[in-house]
Amino acid sequence: MVAEFSSPSGRAMRTAELAGLTGAEPDPDLLEWDYGGYEGLTAEQIREARPGWDLWRDGVIPGDADHPGEELAQVAARTDAVLDRIRPLLREGDVAVVAHGHLARVLTARWLGLDASASRLLGHPHPGTLSVLATEDGHPVISAWNVP
């Protein structure tokens, strides 16, 4: 492994450790989407107050100082920054990334060269699963997704 990066959250760093990535570098750009005023709520709870709500279409509402909220474009900019740092390293070998579900979906869409809104087309990665982004004939691909 050439490099290892993880969201700095405790659970992500612990996941990296359990996966044997003892040298994972914390990267704040890998933090989960800031859900703003929806932080701590389930999608079902949000839909009770806002029927038909869809994160990818409707986004989040502003929150407090700790969780002001992010637009999808802001999350995409963070994942683009991560990919800009990782791509040169891939010439030397594999890079491991430990990230959260929604952020991983955005990172994957951006890896594929898609608009961040295409993230809705990817199934939500379950905790502790493995996904592999690769290239095939010089084109970015998903070679594995949500593997236990």
Relevant terms:
about 150 residues, globular, two-stranded antiparallel sheet, 5 strands, alpha/beta
How big is the Rg? 16 Å
Give unreliable regions as ranges. Answer: none
What fraction, in percent, of the residue positions are helical?
A: 25-40%
Anisotropy-based shape: globular
What does the average pLDDT come to? 97
- Termini, distance in Å? 20 Å
- Please, what is the oligomeric state? single chain
Category by helix and strand content: alpha/beta
Could you describe the largest sheet, including whether it forms a barrel? 3 strands, parallel
How many separate helices?
A: 5
Instruction: Walk across the major sheet and give the strand order.
Output: 2-1-3
Q: Order of helices and strands, N to C?
A: EHEHHHEHEE
The number of E-state strands comes to 5
What percent of residues are in strands?
A: 15-25%
